[in-house]
Design brief:
255 residues, globular, alpha+beta, single chain, Phosphatidylethanolamine-binding Protein, 9 strands, nine-stranded antiparallel beta sheet
Length: 255
């Protein structure tokens, strides 16, 4: 029974209008299988933050055409100072992926299936190294992470250079625009999305900055510390000084 579960999840994602989330472009109807330490992260499933801090294992049930691929992973729910408006953040852009020539066992907590697994050459540096999800305690608490596989077999040097340049600016990353500029917008061959949620509660947003560590949904920095509320103390000190001055004035007039 368990062996059917992962197959059913993949079939559900593949049978949908798109394996990527609604509204995301460029979309794909082919499901990308994604597991973190054997835990499936498919079709919008909610997974624990702790297991997502290392790059996942990725595969497809059918062998894709092509000899070289890239993976992009994007957080679509970066908080802003104007909620519910959100921004985006590139979590991963790795080129040079190759796919196994034959199907191999692909195991997850939901079961197992056979799939064609992607691997990354050890000598291939990522254009944007993997950043583990870490949604901050800001609206929205739930973050949707989208992954797409791009066929780069026929990508030009200029196209790959465009990807590398775009990857240097993670915040506000627009996959549609970037892939269009790289001549690869029609080369998206598989996709997936999953969710990681901060349990809350929501903290104040005035002192938070969505472009710094702790506010951008990554583990690249520590959470901002809470500053003491000094305004009230300053007002009390000023009020006390003013009252003392007035008392001296009254005493002087009484003389």
């Amino acid at each position: 029974m368990q062996s059917k579960s992962l197959i059913a999840l993949a079939a559900s994602a593949s049978g949908a209008l798109a394996a990527t989330p609604p509204g995301f472009e460029p979309s794909s109807e082919t499901s990308l299988l994604v597991t973190y330490g054997g835990v499936a992260a498919l079709d919008g499933a909610v997974v624990e933050k702790d297991i997502t801090q290392e790059p996942p294992t990725i595969a497809t049930q059918s062998k894709l055409d092509g000899t070289s691929f890239a993976i992009l992973m994007i957080d679509l729910d970066i908080p802003t100072d104007n909620p519910p408006e959100t921004n985006t953040l590139l979590h991963w852009l790795q080129t040079g992926l190759t796919q196994s020539s034959s199907a191999v066992p692909f195991n997850a907590t939901q079961g197992s299936t056979s799939a064609f697994v992607f691997s990354v050459p050890e000598d291939e540096d990522a254009f944007a190294p993997y950043l583990g999800p870490a949604p901050p305690a800001r609206i929205p608490l739930s973050h949707e992470y989208t992954e797409i596989i791009v066929d780069t077999s026929d990508a030009s040097e200029d196209g790959l250079s465009a990807l590398k340049t775009a990857a240097a600016n993670r915040l506000g990353f627009n996959a549609q625009d970037v892939l269009t500029s790289a001549g690869l917008v029609d080369k998206v061959v598989a996709g997936n999305f999953f969710n990681v949620t901060n349990p809350g509660p929501v903290e104040g947003t005035k002192s938070s900055n969505s472009t710094t560590g702790g506010g951008n949904g990554t583990n690249s920095g520590s959470s901002p510390s809470q500053s003491p509320v000094t305004g009230a103390a300053v007002s009390q000190r000023v009020g006390a000084s003013l009252l003392a001055t007035m008392m001296v004035g009254v005493a002087f007039l009484a003389l």
